[in-house]
Amino acid sequence: MKEIRVALLGYGGIARAHMHGYDVLEKEGFPIHRVALCDVDPEQFSAVQKINIEADGKQTTGSLHLYTDVDEMLANEEIDLVDICLPTYLHKDYAIRMLRAGKHVQCEKPMALSYADCAEMIATAKECGRHLMIGQCLRFNANYLALKALIDEGRYGRVISASFERLSALPRWGFEGWFRDVKRSGGALMDMGVHDVDMVRYLLGEPDAVSAISVDMDMPKQSYTCRLLYKNGPFVTTQVSWCEAPGFPFSCPFHVTLEKATVTWDGRGQVTVYPAGGEVYTLAYEQCDHMAEEIRYLGEVILGMHENKKNPPESAMATMKIVALLDASAAQGGQTLFTEKEL
Fold first, then answer.
1. Rounded distance between C-alpha atoms, residue 148 and residue 153, angstroms
2. 4-135 falls under which CATH superfamily?
3. At residue 218, does pLDDT exceed 80?
4. What pLDDT band is residue 320 in, cutting at 50, 70 and 90?
């Protein structure tokens, strides 16, 4: 394979961020090329979509072949990779459908609505001999990678505590209001908090136990405060909320305390380090388009350049297990649940 031909399935808000990633890669000359775009609503092809992350809501479809029927697209186009940007409740069925059609699949997070659905997706990918990767994009984000490098280096000792926040107004976008339907989105923790749960695992390994409490407002499961517990530390909390006022800007800061330094990020700019007994400084690293880097990584896997060790689907499924346990804890009033529990 000399070039990867891509079709995007779904053209809502997150797909615009994906489109910008492809723009970056194609301008660089990376061997990936978009050929088609499919959305059940033809008005999406010309609509402006703004969501809670910085994405180009005016992203145009260019010369892509446009479809409203996925079977028609598959029949008419030569496609190697399908990039699924559909609502969460459609992830499993369409991922399996595309894998069985012989396509590699990139699927937006969260992987699916249940741990069992995640397992079925992975089994199908193996059965079909195709690559499946889930869009845990923070694993390709320069700010979090800088934090991981600092932790792994060990120069400031072990992590004592960490907190991660992901705060937004209640989503008013999305096909037929699906975000606000907990049966289709899973609520704030599954849709948005999954990022921080996955990043905690990526930075610190598997927690031994979890607990959470949740708040219902305009919809169930609109806000969660979570604890991810490790036998010998650190103490980790995550806060995810769709309860913020409509004018509140999307916010995703973190605060990490190590034995010999405190590391913070306000969600913008560079990561700041406060060493014990030293000068405050910002970490030196280049910002990047994490969507482009995520797509590039999967493209390299498809082209046989390396194995997927950074973001395998099995790890995304393990994240969904932690999310499910946190949700179960919240349903039981914050009871501590051990992660060895089978789902």
1. 8
2. NAD(P)-binding Rossmann-like Domain (3.40.50.720)
3. yes
4. very high
Looking at the predicted structure, is the pLDDT value of residue 52 above 80? Answer: no
| Token pair for 184 | 């289709």
E strand map for 172-269: 209-215, 223-229, 235-244, 254-258, 261-265
pTM recorded for the entire structure: 0.94
**CATH H-level, domain 139-291+320-338: superfamily:** Dihydrodipicolinate Reductase; domain 2 (3.30.360.10)
Closest among 57, 75, 55 to 65, alpha carbons compared: 75
SS3 338: strand
The secondary structure of the chain in percent helix, strand, coil, rounded to multiples of 5, reads: 40, 25, 35
pLDDT at 62: 76
- Give, as one character, the DSSP assignment of residue 155: T
Residues of the chain with CATH 3.30.360.10: 139-291+320-338
Phi/psi for 146 (5° steps) reads -65, -40
Lowest mean pLDDT segment, chosen from 23-37, 46-60, 222-236, 295-309 = 46-60
Instruction: Outline where the chain has alpha helix (H).
Output: 13-28, 70-76, 91-100, 115-128, 142-153, 182-185, 187-188, 194-204, 290-302, 313-331
Contacts of 339 (CB under 8 A, 6+ apart): 206, 207, 208, 209, 210, 321, 322, 325
Measured distance CA(296)–CA(339) in Å, rounded: 33
Task: Evaluate if residue 241 carries a pLDDT over 70.
Answer: yes
* pLDDT tens profile 280-309: 999 999 999 999 999 999 999 999 999 999
CB proximity list for 153: less than 8 A, separation 6 or greater: none
| Among 108, 138, 93, CA closest to 15 | 108
